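Notes to self after the call with IL:
- keep both proteins in one doc
- input above output, always
- annotate only the second one for now

Protein 1:
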Amino acid sequence: MTSIAVFGYIGRRSGFESVELMYDQRAIKRYEEGRKFHHKGKLSEAERAYKKAIKISPEFSEAYNNLGNVLMDKSRPREAADAYRRALKHLSDHPMLLNNLGNALQALGDNEKAVEWFHKALQQDSNYAQAHNNLGNALRDLGQLQQAEASYRRATEIDPGQADALNNLAGILFESGRLNEAIDSFHKVIAIDPGHVGAHTALGFALIEKGSDTQAIEAFQKALQLDPRQADAQVGLGNALSKLGEFDRALESYQQALKLDPENLNAHNCLGRFNSDINELDKAIGCYQTAIDLDPTHKESFKNLAEVFAAHGRLDEAIDYCRKAIEIDSGYAEAYRLLSRIRKFSEYDDDIQAMQSLFAKDGISDSDKMQVGFGLGKAYEDIGDYEKSMLYILDGSRLKRLTFNYSVSKSRELFERIKKVFTREFFGGYEMQGNTDETPIFILGMPRSGTSLVEQILASHPDVHGGGELVDLMQVLNLAHDRYVGSNIDEFPEFVTRLEPRDLRELGCEYVSRIRKLSPDARFITDKMPHNFLRIGFIRMILPNARIVNCCRDPMDNCLSMFKNYFSHGHDYSYDLTELGQYYNLYLDLMRHWKSTLPGFIYELSYQDLVIDQEKQIRQLLEHCHLPWNDACLDFYKTERLVNTASNAQVRQPIYKDSVMRWKRYEKQLKPLADVILGE
């Protein structure tokens, strides 16, 4: 679903509680009146009182500072900054004043200047936890996520009980894709402050990303218990319910969010994505258009509208809305990357020039530079400048890799545990004990291996509904753990050994019931979540009659296609050539294990063979899936359907041979990958 700001990133500022008896007593009296009014939330009265104190004693730094705080509360940061500067004329090295001026500058959008003032505050007091927290906020807004994380960590080290800094740290971990760490940190925030509504809400969004949608619902419900008017929590609840296939309840949550806050742009955008996912294109467009009507400068709404048009194959309209988003913000890096992905470049043009200028701009954040780097990589590949293309891709991948922790050794450990559990002997005790329904067709393999293309071919058949990348199997796996095992000690894959035949049948029925909501009448429904190759053993246990299509591609072509592609989340192994090669080898080894352990259960479809003899390969694929021939499968690119992946432009075109052995164009730069994959 559309991303939503839920973490708060609270920037704390402080006020003087008492003053030295160096000022006129009349001024001090007005100052104390101002403090009382401020504490009661009477901002206008507080503002007048502080100004009277300053009029009596123009050098009254404490009054200037607290006036600045009031002005910040009244959303007047420019005047607040002026008040803080006047205070600093008389207390030039006071860390609290330096910190507060930094907050005002950040509120004005001048994060670079804000960073300077937070550093000045910390030079005066290196243990100033609030300044470390606020510095983290400014660095985050600049896209410097690693530095922001370090600042938040320092704030929590100094003051372990500061829930706001810990919540901000959890948010940065979430943005960096480190879900487990983020979730642990949100739990710590809640342990410190059980009533922290923002932490409960943010925890819910993190759990959705992890695939733990049932737990996410509990987090959102807790937030709503604490504050029933939390529109963002209602939006998150709608997102989680939608992923669970509870579409009616999801719609109710979105509607409730909009009832609470009719102008909530995130609610309109998430409802738009929801309608797009259920193929209500007109309603989706209406939601995004409403958001745009509410705020014609909301660039994210234009970008989201471009994404929905792209997902439905309306590429010209998608390009138009990308351009409208860029008109609003000429530095909107994410919109440039999307534009580059959905349009075909034939020559060096204004779009490439604009991206180059943005990439080279002084002060551009690492996050934006990464986005533009991937966009330029795609553009230069289109026009045949492969050396320059790879230079930008390498830069974008390097910046992306800096935003998270990943160890291929942990992946290797998981793969080995899977092989240890799912043996021939193990399956001998589970043969045909699950649900024998034949509805599901699982299309899997490494990302960018042709899974979207194969699904488009199958979904062009009148007997098949293309489900897309479904999270249902992972959710059923989580359900199996929670319902039948329930111990935190037991993990996947070990816990599956404790499932009984009745459990397997119920889990198989649960999965089929979930995907049936996508199409009650289709004979077959596809699930093309690529990484289901990790769960082939579980599929065999609960759905022994399911069909599995493993999409294969030349390893170097496959890895190149992943490396030059930006993934919104996941696939952390794909941003370093050596790690990518190591992970790909783990995939190959696991697939050899599955074929040896479950002979005949997996159908392999080679992308290269499909390119060479399209009709022959499609006929064999349909035969494997027990489907009669249909000419529409050969003209798959004419089929209009939702394709929510990076391949949504490619599947609208016939198959071309130039995608085979493409890696040779980048052979020199891909040597670290070739050393691992080819052993060179």
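Protein 2 (the one to annotate):
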Amino acid sequence: MRSYAVIETLALALLFETEPAHGQQAAPTQLPVAESALARGDFDRAVKLARDYTSHHPGDWRGWFVQGRATLARGGTGNTHRVAAIIAFRHATWLAPERAEVWDGYGRAGLELGNADGELILHEAYQRVLAIDPLYANAWENWLKAYRNRSDRERMRRILARHDSIPAVRARVAQLLIEDEQYAAADAVLDSLLELDPEHPGWLALRAESALEAGDTAVGTAFYDRALENADRDGGEVLWEQAIGIATPGEIRAWEAGIPPSARFGFLRSFWARRNPDLFRDLNQRIAEHFARLRAARKQFPSTFPLAGYKTRQLQRTLGARPTAGEGLFYQRCEARQFPTGPARAADVARMSPEVESLLYDPAIEATWRNSVLPPGELYVDPKVAGVLDMPYARDLRDVDTTAAAIGYNLRTGLDDRGLTYLRFGAPRRRTIGSLNSVDPFCQLPDLERWEYEDIGIVRFFRPEAVNVGAAAPSASTGELVFRPMSDRQFEAMEAVLTRNATSVPAPLSFGVWLAQFAGAETGMTDLVVVTTRGAVAAQLTAAAAVAGPPLGDTTGLVVLQAAPGWYSLMADARVGDTLGRQGLTVSVHALGRDWGTSDFLLAAAWPDTLITRSAMLGRVQRDLIFGTGATLRAYAEIYGLHPRDGRVEYRASYQIYRTSDVARDALREDLPGGVELSFTRSRPSTGGPVAEWLDITPAQVPPGRYLLRLEVMEPRGLQVIGRAQIGFEIHSR
């Protein structure tokens, strides 16, 4: 059994600081009173009473246990109260080693203490708890927060093996086998469990993870789909724990706020649908890609110091998030300049004072450095100069949506910041370890990494403890490489890593996409027309916790999706040959059909028939919205909510054809002066359904150029607007 002599030496006096005078006895009822004070939140009184009790009843584990709980609950500044609580709980474990609750208190105090000492305590405490009661509340979850290597997992499997008659315990053994990449052994355990309950979502999810990490995509996907279908049952939260590493801050907030079990399937299905890298394929490749990345990140970039205060305490993270002056100097000497007197970016030079410039290169000091015995990262600085070193990059992690950090990306995934980046964006295009400055001995550190991605730029990682410049040593300990941007672009890359994720499936095809909404045939539903400017199309709508339908594809470049009114994410893919393109946007689907309103426009080249229908327009729609000179355009929209009288409806239709250099800008304008205006009073036959409104635009009205077409529909007297539609198009000389 480990002994924590240093902790005990620091806190021993605290345990007896309120020892009663000689001869005074603590009443037997003192402990229940202390427990009552603890229950009602009177922590000072609870601590005092518990200390009085233990001073006279040192052999009663209950007194030490209450003292530890009260001391931890009371809190304080620094680690004093945590250490005192640890010692109290330690006494309780000596006196009652068979009781799981005393080890749990000891472990919780170690978790709060954090860092290396807390991690040792956490391991010992929860090994003992799980050996006594493998289903003790939160014991397994707390043990998972500590760093664990292969030997730690082997030791825990031996402990859990004592309780292998409990299915939930066997599932934990399978989880540890997966982490050790012993997939065949994990499959055997999980298959035996699934014989007991074939639809248990947690066991199915682990079985899927084992298969996908081993590279068996077909089997893994089948198990994962079954797990999703049963996500509403107990065990469905395993699916979230597997996915949280690539969740956006908004998704984390939504889940942690409380997704009811009945909504888990829709939430998780939508979660993965938004990440589908190729809507033309039957299987969502992103799921298999995620688990393949997870395996690689777990092996290469585990969080070796998960309980460092930088990661577990908001205050320490706030204090340590800003790069230190020493780090700033390292960046200037070793990265902005790759050799002494070498070029530096103008933005970096502007931040330098003359004193700092002399630290970057001074011929007299340089000769001393070359003959110095100082290790890399160490630099002695004149105290008079040290005061001007406070020049670190001004933005830091506090300027990002820190939901990910607060919830605990690192703790929940067991990955360091590099592993998190790998999980979310895959392997970088280029990974550089160490400084490119090979001349300056101060720069020869392996504690710098720069990961370069095509779409987000350079993500910079650094271990703050690696540099010590005079009195400007790091103020917080992290123990491992962490996000450390030192320029605006690096900050934006870090922000992308913390708030986004991406597939590695390439999609280089450039294309445009435009939308048109119409009332659906089913009451309360809307038809969303999705048109791509080139290639075949596949599209899908997802909401925050639901999927409107499966992906729809068509070689004509146009599909019609159905959805109820609301906000959605739209994914639209285009394909030309083997080349894929991908776009995503947020869409507000409107309620159309019952009240006054208009649909969006469709544009096509005119044809002789004047019996105009939506289906006829969809069959001829101009996908790129570009027409040749001399073509007659046909514009089509639908009007809703008109009530027929004697089988007819009446309304006024006003068109504006406005020449523009920026369609998006002018679409927001209320008035479009100077354009061509066409107004008509319409009287059309109607049976009460949508009314087709169309107009042929002749070549004389639209010479070559870019245009915004706007339609405003009003009731016959022109006193009330029924609806408005608008669209941009272009006339080319071709």
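Annotation: The chain has 30 helices and 23 strands. The chain has five domains: 1-146, 166-300, 309-499, 513-589, 597-732.
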